[in-house]
Amino acid sequence: MTNWAVDLIDVRKTYGKTVHALRGVNIKVGRGEIFGLLGPNGAGKTTLVKIMMTVVHPSRALGTILGRPLGHRGKLARTGYLPENHRYPGYLTGAQVLDYYAALAKVPRPQRRANAARLLERFGIARWGDTRVDKYSKGMLQRLGLAQALMNDPELLVLDEPTDGLDPVGRRDVRQLLLELQQQGTTVFLNSHLLSELEMVCDRVTILVDGLVARQGTLAELTEHTVEYRVTFSGDAKPIRDKLMALGGTLDGDMLVLAGGGTQKVNAAIDLLRSQGLSIESVQPHRFSLEDILVEAMSGGAPAGAGQKGTP
Amino acid sequence: MQVWALIVDSFRESLDRKIFWVLLLIELLVAAAMFCIGFEPGRIDVLFGLWTPQTDAFTSLSGLRTDRIAGLAVHFIMDLFLGWVGITLAIIATAGFFPTMLERGAVDVVLSKPISRPKLFLGRYMGSMVFVLLHATFFVGITFVIIGTRWRTWLPGYLLSIPLMVLLFSYIYCISAWAGVAYRSTVVAVIISLAAWACFFGIQTTGDLFETLPRWKESRAAYKAISTARWVIPKTQDITYLAARWSGASTSAGLVPEVDKDGQDMVQRADQSERERMYMNPIHTIGTSLLFEAVIVALAMWRFSRQDY
Fold first, then answer.
1. Fewer CB within 10 A of the terminal residue: chain A, N end or C end?
2. Mean per-residue pLDDT for A300-312?
3. What is the pTM of this model?
4. Do A91 and B306 count as a contact with CB atoms less than 8 A apart?
């Protein structure tokens, strides 16, 4: 059995002849990981997720999901999916929604009944199990969608904007759920705009920009080399400007900004400043957030050392 | 399990549509109206004796017996209600089955399940058939009993109207399903399928005119074109004709010549015999229509299977 729950190789999707939604995406997700997919609007995230779930046909796609080629029915039966802006037939009750989609996923009837009762309870909508879903609020629908995705006890759970429409408590519940599922060995593939949430739960992330993987790696890998140090001083540093720039620093008035390079470089810069008789007032490390990395990736910048190597 | 789930879902969806209940109400009203009329030898009574028309005068004027009036009434019901009103309402009721399944947000979940798209399509398609089968069974069943008890005419062949009406519906519905998949719009599906039905009617009627008006046949190219078109399209008119004929209503109404033991018309008319062979052979009528349906269903499935959602 392969260690990858998701191993996508050279996934491409072209609409018509000119719109290249995906231009050769390679993604690996280890079993039991919580994986985050992020990127700006139009980056191709939803297209990628839809290709994984056979909703969209790829122009080209190699690789496997749960060890089998994309679209393998046996593995789809072991995958749960919550699409973005999902909509369930208004004439069904919550319990009927769960039963119907689980039947399509070939879940045996006794298991459907047991899972439906358990999940309705788990998501706090058991009281509304016999209510038509067109009477549900957005938050209740989202909870129902999550329950639907879990009806087949999936090995791989693909969630597209799972906290959309949920209040802060609901979001916290979802985060808690994802961590619980991870403990049970479920792999979670998460597509979300809420970067702070991805930071809280994801083991690894991939940033898609313009249909290509711009960054990929664990959060530690992505942020490890994306620390900058801000050294403020008093005095004139212009005479040593070239030497500071050689260390990778940039001068901004009375502040020297050193991007990456670790503490050795900072110490070297401080030594240089002090040798010039300048007084060091403060040294502040500043670690990039996921948002900073995303913005950098979108602008085409390359934070030192961030990313591409990041497959585990 | 999967196909059954799709059929059950289609049934639930149909129950949610007002037109399901409208159709049921119309069926009940028609059945009630039929129940209020009784045919007995030489006598017709309305509302259980409240009003008894002077049937002697009526039958002498029309030259019809009461059993023939009953036969005519059955023929009328089959042609108008089952053949036109019922099928039209059924098309309207089921036209949304595919577009609603393919709505953004709804289709994603369904397509992510371990079910092939052709199977998904056919499951949904069969759901519509079940919808019509239930209505046809209800209406034909209840009116069969009424015709037997109140009209004193037991027509076992009338029960064949159930599969024939489902067949007739399926010939039109395949176009609705294709349009639903292609355009994802209930309104467009209704318009296209009813327009196609009207075209079929026009072609069949024109074909009939060609058969009965020798002068028209002189235009050989036009005759060949209409004959070919008629061969290709579903024979919707002929299905209702077959239903009426097999039910025995046409015979008792005197609308078709009676047949002998070998199934041959006792009264042969030269200009009709060719038409009988060509167009009224049930195997030909049903078979070529089913061929048309199979082609359209295959096209719809192909489209559905290749489409991105």
1. N
2. 43
3. 0.81
4. no
